[in-house]
Amino acid sequence: MSRSSRTTLLSAALAAALLATLAPAATAVGPRAEPTARAEAGGGGGDGIPDLTDSRGRVLTLRGWNVGDKAHSGDEALSSVTEKHFRDMRAKGFNTARLLVFWDDLEPRPGRYSRSYLRKIERVLDWAAKHDVMVILDAHQDVFGPAFDHRGIPAWATRTDGLPFTPHPDDWFSEYFEPAVQRAFTHLYEDEDLRRAQARMWRLLADRFEDHPAVLGYDLINEPMGELREGEDLATAARRIEREQITPMYNRIADAIRSVDRDSWIFVEPTPIVGEGVPTGLGRIDDPKVVYAPHFYNSAMEVGGDYDPSARWIENYEAAVTLYPKEYKVPVIVGEWGPLNNSLPNMNRFYREAMASLGRYGSGWTGWEWCYGGGYCAVDATGAFRTNKELTAEPYAEAVAGRVRSSAYDPAAGVYRLEYDAAGLRGSRVTELALPSGDWAVRARGALVLRDRDGGKARVLAAPNARVTVTVTRTAPARP
What is the pTM of this model? Predict the structure, then answer.
């Protein structure tokens, strides 16, 4: 979702008003835990939030970035995404990419799908597989699509009933509140022919890529929005839209995907309002492999402001965002996060506290975004982390063959510890650790450690039902 000048004071004011109306619901959690800690026995996020798992039953942790190309379409689609993206991400310890794909590129005319675009997606997936990066295919939209000079839902699937649209070039997110855009969402949710077209599009994608070794799952639509009714505040509207329109949409698309793909994970998002600590109104998605995939953005920071610890935004967000996965027993992956200006005085603290919070309840995250430059980019033109972004690179257990008892990283000491009970006789034997740039010593009690030649990965082999303790210690600082 993010790009420069994502939200202006208008959007911030809406969010502030929204938080005021929901103060009782957004109660703060307890004191922040340092070091980053995850997976108390019984669930990936604690308090009954399940783990994400792979086909071998191993507990997964995803750490990675969004990868996409909004600037190019048609014959030039995905041209700015290269193999270098995946090679560099993996070299710095990241194992996941959320790849932006656009319906308007896939189906430029009704029923006419672009074989060229499918081949481009496949080429990107091949690069990801080559560098051992898992991919979430994200059907991305911003402000609905090209009918409003953005990307996403095709112009032929955009119905506005003649309602007005005024561009806001300095505040693109506020364009979601334009009458024509809101009505377009209503038609997408309610018109039977558009429902069928959206389901067919997803069935085609799933049928084409279900067997690709890089594909982990499908994010059904980026940051869905909807139409406010007269007199309805933003919080009430968001919950109604999520409950009455977005939940049925997700169930329709899930059914279409399952007609061709029984195994991949399905990622479902609330409206972006959840980023301000607002519990979602989403209902149950009737599928056994659903992941809740909210985004983690703060209005003040999105206009370039500094992190304000006293506002307790992270605590409020964590308290609200964990309600849905606890109720419906689904894992959590935060699909987008990261501020616009990373070099302000409090941003070092923000990244440390955000990493700790994300580790408490989630199975991972994909930050915004892996690109080479300024703004939201993770790295600069030379490939070096931009200020404070290096704090996102930690050792972690990307796949645990057993039941995780505890997992924690102390960034000050540079020490990661993992304790787990190895799987039984029929379970996987291999636990995999991802190591960021730098020199790391890996020791295990109760298991054997094998290191990859390039040093970026370690494998731990344990006997059935063994109690295993793994310690990873930084022995030299990370290279740029």
Answer: 0.92
